[in-house]
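Fold this sequence, please.
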Amino acid sequence: MITVRKLARLPERTRIRKAANVLGEFVRMAQRGDQVDRIYLRELLRCEELLSALPESTTMAMRAGADSLKELEDRQLAVLLDDLQYLLLGAVGASVADWDFHDMQTGTLDRTHRVLMPFWVYLDRVRSPFNVGSLFRTADSFGVTKILLEEGSASPKHPRAVRSARGCIDTVDWEITRSHSFDQDPHGPVFALELGGTPIDRFTFPARGTVIVGSEELGVSPEMLAIADRSLGRVSIPLAGTKGSLNVSVAFGILMQHWYAACTDA
């Protein structure tokens, strides 16, 4: 754990991010029932170099938190520290979800925390930037090694994609490609997320391979379906509602959890 003296010497924004990260570590310790160093916490929450860079309301909350440490049980402490972490990240325009694993110097997500799985994803003309960004965020979470985007898919660099990806276009490798190039050099077995396939709870997921995800309106293109059908075929998510299909990013999240669990016994 970084000393408060050393933290006080960091650049202002880095100091705030680091303090938020430290509070997050203490939140997890309190949740597990581990012993929390409340003396260190009190010193951190009263650090003048930290407080001087914060909005007055956040400073007041930090001081009040320092004064209440002795009285709190572990669960109460976790809630308090989680609140303070949220306030600190808000002071630099971030959120807890964005910075769970981040590089303190650059403020970007830290790729070294990712555990890569031999999973590739082929986006077949996914047109919505928001969906592309959401797909990247899910891919980051489930260890996808690389995303291939068919020409005509929304660019991961589109502002809306960047917004919904929450930094993950920089943590998951990607490239623009075309179907005929992929057909010549597929990454392992191939299957498509598409209607009319094997129900997802009966589908045999490969230990490595590529899943094809189609456009919001038309689904997977005929040429990409042909590639999948020559390999592992199609997987579908059974539905019970009035809609005929799920949003592509939601469906992708369901599929990736199943694939990840099948290969890790998660």
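The radius of gyration is 23 Å. The chain has a mean pLDDT of 89.
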